[in-house]
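S., here's the first fold you wanted:
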Amino acid sequence: MTGTIAAIVLSIVLWIFIMTNDQRFSRLSQTNNAISRQQTRSKNTKSNYDLYIPTKAYGFMKGKPYSLYDSKNNLSFEFSNNLQQATVKRIVKMSGSVANYSVLINNPNFLQLSYPDKVTFNMFADFGNKKDNREFNRFFITSSNKWIYVGNDQTSALYRVYLKNANFDRLRRYAKNASQKVPISFYKISTGYATFYTQPTKLKVYSYLTNRQSDAYFVSRLLGTSGVSSRTNKKGVTTYSLSYYTRLSVPTIRSDGPNNYVYTHYDKKDNPDAEVSLTNKLLNSIDYVHQLGLTEQDLRFFDVDDNGVSYTNYIEGMPVFLNQHDLQIVVGSSSDSATTVTFNSLNFQIPIPFDGRTTTLEATRKMLNDLENHGMRENEVQRIVVGYRVEKDNSYNNLVNLIPTYYLKAYGEWKSAEEWAKQDMNLYNLAADRKGDN
């Protein structure tokens, strides 16, 4: 107990030092100011490069692919800063195929950075042309500073992007000297490429002190300080209403419950049935992320589908899942012109110095084979990631441990591999068959 308290006190001191001196934080501040000055959109441009930052980096050693990470010289931040300082001269679509794309993704001459899901050129004011909604999720960095490849893992579409004033020399040096290099392989699944650990892999368990904002904070942020017209309590949920069109539901039980808030806002649309472009879907969600007032230091775009746009915290290069498999924020919409924002109030505040605790994950292929033997269909697997499961540490209040865990998105749902192994897959397969028939 004494050791835990000492570690927490030390972490608070280190946190203060980091917040006032660390290069990573000062670089973020400079980035925000720079984007503000060159804003070319009427909204959202300021934070696009922060929330929508590539989350994974890959390189090669002796012809074999490796996942790269370095907390001191963050590859994703470095690349994002490089991209913001560059100007796109033109984008040329290349002729491509699944076979050619597979060759490229395994080409040792390229450094790669990827998004967890698809984005569009038009998301970035200095990177896309107006109404350019072409989708991509992977960058291929060449040995040249004059152009890069941009690819779509799912469709195998490939673009050559010619740049002016780009310089990736420091990025290449950081990648070569990255402190963490884990052997992986790229495996094609239904929606793109998954990263497979080729062997059992030992990963660190991290600990964080956390806090939660009060209910009043979110009521004030989302409904205002004087506009709440009613308050009701039903089945453990309190709902505050600004009017019929705007309301916030908050959990009453805070200790053991999921602590998921639900904000609903109805907005009249000229044509509610009109299809919304992916760009607008992503951009519109950013407004709601800012409106919540959660700590955005490590918050990143994570997933987009028919259910909405999801964001979660990335800590030490990996996404955090809450309440077994929830994400921090999901911004969705419905056919009745309602936007629904489901979010968790947990903030990861202060990192505890690493104490040596680790966990070992089995090879990804073995994990997937076990689930297939359980009844999961491989063609229903949409994503495979290693993320953190949040476990409460009983030695100190508000202290949590982050346990590396396999997570899969299959049949449209995120669950850990352990959770999927407990599901009745016959029910999921039956539902998938019925959906396919329709």
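And the second, which I think is the more interesting of the pair:
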Amino acid sequence: MSHITEDYLSGVIRRIAVVCQLSDWSFVQEKFVNMAQNYFGDLIPITLSGTRHGVSVSYNIVLKLAPINEEYRVSGAVTVMFARETYVYSTLMKAYREILQRLPPQSQYVIPKCYYVQQEYCKEVIALQDMTVEGYRPYVHAMFLDLDHTLVSLKSLAKLHSLSFILQNERPQQFEDIMTICGPLTESTNSRYMDIMKDRLDKALKKFPASDITPVLQKLRKNCAKYFKAAVYSVQNTCICHGDIWKENILYKYEGNKPVSACVIDYQTTRKCCPAFDVMYLILSSTNSELRNKYFQQLMEIYYRTFEIALKDAGISSQTVYSRPMFDADMRVVAPACLITANTALWLSNGLQEEGHVRSKHQWTTKEEKEKAVEKYKTIISTMIDDLTNFGYMPLNEF
């Protein structure tokens, strides 16, 4: 996508070697065994070797490189997202690592090491620890997560949210400074993002010209900006949220064939929001209807229990900062915005986004393939709306 040349890549690695204080260094470009979808830039795994103070060292690194061609930067979305993610890794995650040093194993949150960041326009770089070498890998077996993977994901998310509340409690000024950079997502702060959400709702409406859920989609489209604003300003509390946590942005580590740990990645949309938004969005975008209907309460319980324990380990009462009743109430408030976001993600992952700078990675080449993908997408959206209605998060009399 970005036409990364060997000379450009070597220049980037040279700067990383300087930061790592390496001499006589060399690198080998590696390959991922499994590649998750990445829509903003290039991911290049390398092994960087050299000597430091006379000792041989080696680093397994994933380079995240922004598109260097201006044609991919016209909308400004890529620039904003890379700026946000470089800030998260260089500042926020550094603060979280310091907090984690004194928390027990049960509350540890997995954070890849960040070796280097560069924010120069069209030359943005993030050099991260290659977590696949540590045994983490994307879930590529199916479109949706099974129960074990969902539970592990929610536990990791709960720990991420707890770190935000701990940071706010212990370092209020730094927390406020970070919130200034990782501001909320509203129409006034990111009209481009909101336009994308509305566009995908327009596309959804074309696939549902006259059905039971058409009025729901129409109201979501009409009040799109209002629903995203409510997820920040009409909730019980907010924290520093991931903002785009679905299965494409999570890596898993296994013992046998069972996932035992999750590593959340891709922090381009990290922002001030309600914790319930991340939870609801993860469940909607990454599980199927059968799993939701069978285990929804268990998913809620495992998230909140993990969150509660992590805060307790830091000497904070969850009842004070974000009680279970507050969380339950917020799940209802954020449901419409989560559904809108999930619609956008699933339109993309079903191979239906054929134009624009961010397109589906797997597009269909025949009419039959596309028709099948459309029907699959329609079934997914219909069941999401049905489930939210049945759970009481989107009463039909309000739509």
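Why I say that: The chain has twelve helices and ten strands. The mean pLDDT is 91.

Talk tomorrow,
H.
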